[in-house]
Amino acid sequence: MKSIDWNGVQIPAIGMGTWHMGSDQKTYAQQKATLQYGIEHGATVIDTAEQYGEGDSERLVGDAISDFDRNQLFVISKFYPFHAERQQMEKALDNSLQRLGTDYLDLYLYHWPGRTPLAEVVANMEAMQQSGKIKHWGVSNFDLSDMQSLWSVPEGQNVAANEDLYNIGSRGIDYDLLPWQRDHQIPLIAYAPVDEADSRGLDITKQRALVEVANRHSATPFQIMLAWSIRDGQTIAIPQTSSEQHMQENIDAAKIGLTNDDLQLLDSAFPKPTSKQSLDII
Question: How far is the C-alpha of 151 from the C-alpha of 145, rounded, in Å?
């Protein structure tokens, strides 16, 4: 599987998202099995959050990873903005760790910008890192102005990632945010990296260019979307699925090498923005 260099460590470019997972007992066993299948086949990056099912997703992840070597996994979770103050953050982190059944996170993300001053948020995340409970910290749903503000506060340049919505049909961050992150060597974590409709409401999977590129690679349109999302070598995509078949297709997408001709064709059908766009959030 294609990987990226994360602070000197190679981690897979395609991991697993877990939003909307873990709360329904009817699907719990299948979701657990799918996560375990993904880990067994190399998708060792797992993204969750305290918000997802108010902890249900973290419990599912903790159950799924309990039989694996923790050191071989890269576990990401996120905290609510209203848990950004020191005592609240430490309590939220401890609760997440307990649900996950681990004593540390590889990456802890500030889920979206809140009211707590960024300097205070950063200082608190730095303290959590120094305690050994997290290895790295980052942010989520930050736009360019947010990242620039973060970069300007003490120790803000220690940010290890920004997680934003990004797919071939939602390219707003290609205008300014993504180039800035590349210049500053801040990896992007792309959530919702596949989508059936673009910002215009058009069915992406039936667009001629995407179908043509998929046929060239004997792949599905969804696999091409995933391969496109990680094309720069500095992005981790975290598609969500509860199907082992789809999980394998996601993993296989990391093996697809898009050519310059492929990328030019896709750019012509799904052009990058020519002006500032509002940050897409779901």
Answer: 10
